[in-house]
Write a structure and sequence with these properties.
- The chain is an alpha+beta fold and about 1250 residues long.
- Helices cover about 45% and strands about 10% of the residues.
- Strands 1, 2, 3, 4, 5 and 6 form a six-stranded antiparallel beta sheet that branches. Strands 10-11-9-12-13 form a five-stranded mixed beta sheet, covered by helices on one side. A five-stranded antiparallel beta sheet has the order 20-17-22-23-25, with no helix packed on it.
- Strand 7 and strand 8 form a beta hairpin.
- The longest helix is centred in the middle third of the chain and has 37 residues.
- The protein is elongated and about 130 Å long.
- The N terminus is likely disordered.
- One of its GO terms (biological process) is retrograde transport, endosome to Golgi.
């Protein structure tokens, strides 16, 4: 058995291992698992339960000797590379002892060894109990019991609690100890290996000895049974019966031989789908069960369902007790933890739970991280899976423990339903059976089905395989059913990905440079056009897909697509997936049909099932039968009930000539040859290529697998150092990605390039940043408190600040708005209080995320975290020496990366917490020169944002400022302001209005620069001001604060016609056309963004250089100057035109129908605006007309009408734009582009208009 681990091996099994009690070395306690139990016990003992807890729960360590764990050893001296490791994985609990009074059933479990390069070897172990024959071991156990009972007596005597003692009496009891036989194999033929082991065990427990010595069977399985070739089946002989295994062809889904039925029965469809979603999003997953095989089955099933994607991170389905420190790993992992008979989840201390999916398999329970997006088409998907399960007699709800469901179901068989259906005993559909009545999920599904109009009558129940198959299947019926159920469920899952990514190839970005530079810059490269792909997807898919596209598994999948051009070189999963995608595209000729959210069921289950049945009914290969070996006389004997140490000299070497070992050589040669050709194609030599593929695999994974073999302190320290480096690298990549996306988008809004980020995507990136912060804060924690390590640290800091009354917090920030508003205090504690006061956020994880979002919006994240970490005494108290937060250089770099977020504006708090109450502060700033000191009227304001508006708020005229609290208004867009025209001096010149959000600190400036009052300016008593966010400390703010009266501030759009000779230079026709084009362009771009991404349309209509301003320029161009000192407004011209049109209509001048309709519309809108009860001036009315015209797609008609109107000839010079037919026609064409958009106006713009 000199063959070590070898996945290229062509043998069915690599080697055979026996583990158990080594009587020579005696009883050695299993220190590592004992230590873990001791830590758990002391943790519990130090808790609130007090001293009395020792007697009961504390028994973890003070356990009776029969419940303790002892070291198991590899018994046979075979040439094995990691004997300690095998003992640890074959018998993860160590040795257990029992007496005749205990249950001693054999127990099968499998395990997996994943090496650092990602390759795997599978182990299959059968553990059973044998009687202890060694007198020394029995007396040692008796001694341990005497010591234990004396200890327990002392403890309980002091606490005064009565108890009974566990006991082992050497004279009365028979002692049994666990032993394990194990097969190591390159491929996971779980059912075949289980049969081999069970038959070997049966051979030593049955009354009759087996036909041949056990060595013959083990030798046969190790050296004479080959792996079945691809797409073929193989039969070989066990001790008592044939063993069958089959291997899928290259066109089928990869090999999977674990019973998926078990997973669905243990968890139920809905929980499985939630767990599947967590795995796809690379969330940390911890499986928890007292059965090792359940851990393995669930882990392997979930990863198998991911096809064509592969889990890229730490994968340890059975975590030995010695590796519990690995739960501290700040990387995605999928691990299985043995519950050690502890049913209570609350006693399990986990280092970090903020982004953990915890699956309690035995109790049918799953704990999900917050904000988990829903898998696309979840309900229809659940229904499709449920149909498959019901056909095999599995309840979609799973067998919930402690209910009578499972017992009823045990007797349920699909064939009975079929015969009942034939006899008319079932009401049409199998869903109406017991399963439906007992089951909420199915009830919900039925309701969905009714809504969608699908008939459940068509649901076929699987008929019993034996009734409709002519061919004799060579395996037992249960095994066939397992294969059928597995393949059907897997096909349903694979079909989802095929449908969702049917056109993924279109979005793969092929590198323009050679492979060498592609690899060296791989971290910086985008390999997939995510934005375009997402813009093609139905909206309900986006929350899930935007996060999935960010995962390592998706990146690796696309990398392998780029790496392997030819079909021949493609990885198996990719080749199968691409073939399926091609098939779908042939069926759906019009690709756009793939982009609808219409659910398309799986159609190729039957073919996949037939392929398996074909292989199982006709065996392609039969292996050599076991035979007598060349053994000395007396060898090969055994005692009934005891599994012997096999003869190592016979088993250590295989046959000298073995066609199976030879067969691998040409295959390897062919593979090398093909790699060589491909390497020539890429101009790379083979070593380079292998290096690149390895690097590609390792990209983004700081550490793939724990080294199970070596657990020295130096290795653990090195692992932790890798974690620290990995976290820093991840932080660098995340901040860079977020900045590039955000800056890219802002550049687009400034008119450079194309947009590439959506709100969903921004949310995804921020959520992943919160997850990274949680992982950093969880690394190396001394004691975990609460589910969020970050929030726990903040609370400790808050407590210390209050305790020591530290004034570390009160930095005054430079005023955002110059002298207008008092400066805002920068306070970490105040920001925490804001979050604590939000009733909607219930959990610590939610509070931590809200605090991160608020800090990012305020551009204080790096500063706040630096402040928290500057309390080194607290950090030392909370964290171990190796923790990331105690590595000073890395911590500094990390804070520096976070500082870069200050370069861009985020609204990630405002846009997410839309229903919270927020305090706002409003200040009205009158002109300094013509100030409001004599002003007698009563002013009011109404603030509007993207989410809501306040209604009219009275402003005290002596202070001109007001603070109020209301539901989040979102980004602020407009302020309506005015006064009631009361008192002697009701004329008021307002420079601007400032509004500040009291939580986020965002300050908005609404420039005015106009009079409000009758008989002054345009006679307006109210104005609508359009606002802009003030950025801290920009020079333009200082300049804008000193705006002289009557001069238009840069943000002022409604400009009166300037008559005086000193007026500003007028724009020429080219500039005006450009202005109109820019304004229209802004609106077109607005509507081409996804709906959730659109900014303020009001700003584009009424803001600086918006549509109103642009059309103002058009109508002002060439306007004739009337006599001095009298302002003439565009509205005056429009009113005259209205009078002309109305009189022409009455004098019945014959015009075509279209013309009359346009005239009627124009006059109706003019009348409605003129008769509004609002006191808006002439410029305000013009703005309203433009907005309504844009909304109803009438602007281009009105421009045509006015250009031909005789009033225009009277009031405009010959050079005016409105008199140039070619310019007017081009203006009409530009305005017509607005027709395809559905423009919705903000309420503040059209208040009081009934059209």
């Amino acid at each position: 058995m000199t063959t070590g681990f070898s996945s290229n091996s062509c043998r069915f099994a690599d080697y055979f291992v026996i583990c158990g009690l080594d009587t020579d070395s005696g009883l050695e306690p299993d220190e590592l698992s004992a230590l873990c139990q001791y830590i758990q016990a002391t943790k519990f003992r130090d808790g609130a339960q007090g001293k009395l807890a020792i007697s009961h729960e504390g028994e973890n360590f003070e356990q009776s000797p029969l419940r303790r764990t002892f070291k198991s050893k590899v018994l046979a001296p075979y040439d094995i590379r990691h004997p300690a490791l095998h003992a640890g994985l074959c018998m993860p609990k160590g040795l257990s002892f029992r007496t005749q009074a205990d249950m001693r059933n054999p127990d099968f479990h499998s395990f997996i060894i994943t090496r650092e390069d990602g390759s795997r070897t599978y182990g299959f172990a059968l553990t059973f109990f044998e009687e202890v024959t060694s007198k020394q071991i029995c007396s040692a156990m008796q001694t341990l019991y005497h010591m234990h009972n004396a200890e327990q007596y002392d403890i309980l005597h002091t606490s005064g609690t009565p108890t009974r003692f566990n006991s082992y009496d050497i004279s009365r009891d028979t002692l049994y100890v666990s032993k394990c036989i194990c097969l190591m194999a390159p491929m996971a033929f779980a059912q075949a290996c289980r049969k081999v082991l069970e038959q070997l065990h049966r051979a030593v427990t049955s009354l009759q000895p087996p036909p041949l010595p056990l060595e013959s069977y083990v030798y046969n399985v190790l050296y004479e049974v080959p792996l079945p070739p691809v797409g073929r089946s193989l039969k070989f002989s066990g001790v008592y019966g044939p063993v069958v295994c089959q291997r899928p062809s290259t066109a089928e889904l990869p090999l999977f031989d674990f019973p998926m039925r078990d997973m669905f029965e243990l968890l139920g469809v809905e929980n499985v789908l939630q767990l599947f979603t967590c795995a796809l999003l690379e969330i940390q997953i911890l499986l928890y069960s007292q059965h090792y095989q359940r851990l393995m089955t669930v882990a392997e099933s979930i990863t198998a369902l991911m096809f064509p994607f592969r889990w890229q991170h730490v994968y340890v389905p059975i975590l030995p007790a010695s590796l519990l420190h690995f739960l501290d790993a700040p990387v995605p992992y999928l691990m299985g933890l043995h519950s050690n008979g502890q049913g209570d989840r609350t006693k399990l201390e986990l280092p970090q739970e903020a982004n953990l999916c915890f699956v309690d398999i035995d109790n049918h329970f799953i704990e999900l991280p917050e904000d988990l997006p829903q898998f696309p088409n979840k309900l229809e998907f659940i229904q499709e899976i449920s149909e498959v399960l019901i056909a095999f007699g599995v309840s979609p709800e799973g067998n919930v423990p402690c209910s009578d469901g499972p017992t009823k179901l045990k007797g349920f068989r699909a064939s009975d339903v079929v015969s009942d259906k034939r006899n008319g005993n079932l009401a049409g559909s199998p869903l109406n059976s017991y399963l439906l009545r007992e089951n909420q999920t199915i009830a919900r599904l039925q309701a969905l089905v009714k809504r969608t109009g699908v008939s459940l009558e068509k649901l076929d129940v699987k008929e019993d395989a034996s009734t409709n198959k002519d061919a004799k299947v060579q395996c037992d019926e249960e095994e066939l059913k397992m294969h059928q159920l597995n393949i059907q469920v897997r096909e349903v899952f694979a079909n989802r990905f095929t449908q969702m990514f049917a056109d993924y190839e279109v979005f793969v970005i092929q590198p323009s440079q050679d492979k060498e530079s592609w690899f060296s810059n791989r971290d910086q490269m985008q390999n997939f056009d995510k934005a375009s792909f997402l813009s093609d997807q139905p909206e309900p898919y986006l929350p899930f897909l935007s996060r999935f596209l960010e995962t390592q598994m998706f990146a690796s999948f696309i990398d392998s697509k780029i790496l392997y051009h030819d079909d021949e070189d493609k990885e198996h999963a990719l080749r199968v997936f691409d073939a399926r995608v091609d098939k779908i595209r042939l069926l759906n000729v019009r690709t756009p049909t793939l982009r609808t959210s219409m659910y398309q069921k799986c159609t190729n289950m039957d073919d996949a099932e037939k392929a398996i049945e074909m292989r199982l009914s006709k065996m392609d290969h039969t292996a050599v039968h076991p035979h007598l070996l060349d053994m000395k006389i007396g060898q090969g004997r055994y005692e009934q009930g005891f599994f012997p140490r096999l003869q190592s000299d016979v088993l250590s070497t295989g046959p000298t000539s073995n066609k199976w070992t030879k067969r691998s050589a040409p295959a390897q040669w062919r593979r090398k040859d093909r790699q060589k050709q491909h390497a020539e194609h890429l101009y790379l030599d083979n070593d380079q290529r292998e290096k690149y593929i390895q690097e590609a695999r390792n990209l983004g994974t700081t550490i793939r697998q724990p080294k199970l073999s070596n657990l020295s302190p130096s290795v653990i320290a090195q692992t932790n150092w890798k974690f620290v480096e990995g976290l820093l690298k991840e932080c660098r990549n995340k901040t860079k990605r977020m900045l590039v996306e955000k800056m890219g988008r802002e550049a687009v809004e400034l008119g450079h390039g194309e947009g590439s980020i959506t709100g969903v995507e921004e949310n995804t990136l921020i959520a992943s940043l919160c997850d990274l912060l949680e992982r950093i804060w969880s690394h190396g924690l001394q004691v975990k408190q609460g589910k969020s390590a970050l929030w726990s640290h903040l609370l400790h800091y808050q407590e210390r600040c209050i305790l020591f009354s530290l004034v570390v917090d009160g930095h005054w920030r430079k005023s955002d708005a110059g002298c207008a508003m008092p400066p805002l205090k920068v306070s970490l504690i105040q920001d925490m209080r804001h979050i604590q006061n939000i009733g909607e956020i219930k959990t610590d994880v939610g509070k931590a995320r809200a605090w991160v979002r608020l800090s990012m919006e305020k551009k204080l994240l790096s500063r706040h975290l630096k402040q928290v970490l500057s309390d080194q005494e607290l950090t030392k108290k909370l964290y171990k020496r190796y923790a990331f937060l105690r590595c000073d250089d890395e911590k500094e770099q990390f804070l520096y990366h976070l500082l870069s977020f200050n370069a861009v504006d985020y609204f990630c708090f405002t846009n997410v917490f839309t229903t919270i109450m927020i305090p706002y502060h409003v200040v009205v700033i009158p002109s300094k020169k013509l100030g409001g000191s004599m002003f007698t009227a009563n002013p009011w304001v109404c603030v509007s944002g993207e989410l809501a508006e306040t209604g009219v708020l009275q402003v005290p005229k002596n202070t001109l400022e007001i603070t109020f609290e209301c539901q989040n208004l979102g980004k602020l867009t407009t302020v309506q302001m005015g006064h009631d025209n009361s008192g002697l001096y009701a004329k008021w010149l307002v420079e601007c209005v400032m509004v500040r959000n009291g939580i986020t600190g965002h300050t908005y400036k609404f420039p005015c620069g106009r009079w409000l009052g009758k008989g002054v300016d345009d006679g307006s008593l109210e104005r609508i001001l359009v606002g802009e966010l003030v950025t801290a400390g920009s020079e333009s703010d200082e300049r804008m604060c000193r705006t002289p009266p009557m001069q238009q501030s840069p943000g002022m759009m409604r400009r009166l016609v300037a008559i005086s000779p000193n007026s500003k230079p007028k724009l020429n026709t080219g500039q005006i056309q450009e202005g109109v084009g820019e304004a229209i362009n802004g609106i077109v771009k607005h509507f081409h963004k996804p709906e959730k991404e659109r900014g303020s349309l009001t700003l584009l209509l009424c803001g600086e250089y918006g549509l109103v301003w642009a059309l103002e320029q058009v109508f002002q161009h060439g306007f004739k100057s009337p006599r001095l000192f009298k302002n003439v407004f565009i509205w005056d011209f429009l009113e005259k035109a209205q009078v002309y049109f109305e009189s022409a209509e009455q004098s019945q001048v014959t015009q075509d129908e279209n013309y009359q309709t346009r005239v009627r519309h124009f006059c109706r809108f003019m009348r409605a605006i003129s008769s509004t009860p609002r006191n808006i001036g002439k410029d305000g009315k013009f703005q309203m007309l433009v907005c309504l015209g844009a909304r109803d797609h009438l602007l281009h008609h009105w421009v045509a009408l006015l250009a031909d109107c005789p009033i225009t000839a009277q009031m405009y010079e010959d050079t005016a734009l409105l008199k140039d037919h070619s310019l007017v026609n081009s203006l009409i064409r530009v305005l017509q582009t607005l027709q395809e958009f559905n423009i919705t106006l903000e309420a503040s713009l059209v208040k009081g208009i009934g059209i």
